[in-house]
Amino acid sequence: MSEKNYDVKQEVTDKYSLRGRVFSRLREDILSGKYAEHEELKEVTIGEELGVSRTPVREAFRQLELEGLIQIIPNKGAYVTGITEKDVKDIYMIRSLLEGLCASWATEHITDEQMEEMEENVYLAKFHAEKGHYDQLAELDNRFHEILYEACNSKYLEHTLKDFHQYVIRVRRKTLSNVNRGPKSNEEHEAIMEAIKEKNAKKAQDLANKHILSAYENLVKSGLKEAFDTTEK
Amino acid sequence: MSEKNYDVKQEVTDKYSLRGRVFSRLREDILSGKYAEHEELKEVTIGEELGVSRTPVREAFRQLELEGLIQIIPNKGAYVTGITEKDVKDIYMIRSLLEGLCASWATEHITDEQMEEMEENVYLAKFHAEKGHYDQLAELDNRFHEILYEACNSKYLEHTLKDFHQYVIRVRRKTLSNVNRGPKSNEEHEAIMEAIKEKNAKKAQDLANKHILSAYENLVKSGLKEAFDTTEK
DNA sequence: CCTCGTATAATTGTATACAATCATACGAGG
DNA sequence: CCTCGTATGATTGTATACAATTATACGAGG
Questions:
Q1: Which residues in chain B are closer than 8 Å to A59, comparing Cβ atoms?
Q2: Are the C-beta atoms of B46 and B57 separated by less than 8 Å?
Q3: What is the pTM of this model?
């Protein structure tokens, strides 16, 4: 009966192995923009920076390649993958669909604890929005979506959405986070949450769908183009 | 101007490096069912089998983990990931949505060469269907979808769909491929193709959507449950 | 007979050494 | 001055050695 839960908790391995730490660290650094796009990552350099040998670095590279964050050219090097304006749009369109599906499924499968964390999240976000704590607001925004992903009860959908969400976080850091978006976003979160509470899957799906699209529109408005302008300011 | 095409042609690296060959080989073997689910893969054993050292094997393991084909427990081992009946259903539902989006985008971006290959594919499939060549039919079926993925002009959507498609191929091999499905599937392919030709994106989306759902229903009918019955026959 | 702890074996994790490949510099030949 | 080929250095690819961790076996103590 213990056959069921093969939860792929990769986060666990990440903490306790050098490879995992290198992987997480590099992903973080790439997403946060520490490494410029198309920058070459050298195994020894990274290894020295993190105080490890090439082996764990190489293994981390292979994973980063599969995540699409770097591109490895055989016998040549590893390069930070560029992400274009169109890529961002594509990802949001894909996410919009899947996030809707996710909300729909979450309506049927969300646990009491998850529901509780979600309510807490929305409540807290409302507080920080009033206070103007935009960093915490962004953090809560990310977490809201992760809760939703975990609540859908599908490891594949969860994994896919988390991947795309990572990319989005990366992009969001490039654009100046629009201070006006935070409160509006949280209102939409609340609406989605209410729909889930009412067990109205269709409504939750529709709201989640629109939520992502409106997030994208906001991104465009708040200077997506500028962020992708090759001429660095 | 040459800034645009950063095609992640991983297939290339796969052919020329040991790691790539190990990765491809293991993936193939896992998907084809050579390794049973939950079977432990030992680094030295695999290395000996393929005539390489542990290093490329380990790197391949890390990639397979990220693809979800194996699960690595730190300091313990690598195990072939189980895929449940529910996973299959989830994947088909996700694919249905994305395949629709893909068809819609393909309508706007398909190239003449891709259109030509698609027509040839459908034509050939019709031929093999009449002759009862089910192996070729399955091969063409897979290829049709890959053409569609490539035609959508989005590397992220393409990558995501190809991943899920891989899983489906794996499952399809477990169920006895239903001989009646082949021709029907090809008819649906043709309809999708026609919609794309007519530049009717909405129709293509809708048809692709339904195509995946009907493929799933067929899968269920032709013994999905039996294939996942733990009591091996 | 059961429980617990220790020793041993097996396996993975990491570091390093060596081989292969690629990029660059430099000089001979035209 | 340009072109091409060779030599040299840098970087990745692979193999192997060693460390750390985990699983197993076995025996002492209760």
A1: 58-59, 62
A2: yes
A3: 0.82
